[in-house]
């Protein structure tokens, strides 16, 4: 059986965790909504064109959780395209476009469809990859889910506190 002091500590811990979850959700939602305008501007100014893959680099990224590493292979692809104003632009994409291609079929020289912002051509994405709008909507959605669960946990904590 819990003592009264242990019960108070658990209640405080529950409120703290619930509040933290809610604050993370609010932060994600605010960041998502503030990024939404930038994503909308991108698509309002978007121009589609064809680019050419000029380089692909494989990198190994490791994150350590205590003494356990979690490693992943990442692919950075450099793509060159020409704007309507005949400016040659190079940009890097983290979209892995070469994973299904064998050594007999290199990626360099391959044509890909891209979309770029006419007011800032260095802002470009590979057509079909996760667009800025999708990324923003994902952040907002995750933020709202965190807020809902955080508020539900707070409500449960308040109910338990009032029941004592």
Folded structure, characterized:
There is one protein chain. The chain is α+β, with helices and mostly antiparallel strands. It has one domain. Helix content is 45%, strand content 34%. It has helices at residues 4-44, 132-163; strands at 46-65, 68-82, 88-93, 111-117, 120-126. The chain has a 5-stranded antiparallel β-sheet with strand order 3-2-1-4-5. A hairpin with a 2-residue loop joins β4 and β5. α1 packs antiparallel against α2. The two termini are 14 Å apart.
Structure keywords:
164 residues, alpha+beta, 2 helices, elongated
Arithmetic mean of pLDDT: 82
- CA distance, first residue to last residue: 14 Å
Biggest β-sheet description: 5 strands, antiparallel
The total of beta strands comes to 5
Number of domains: 1
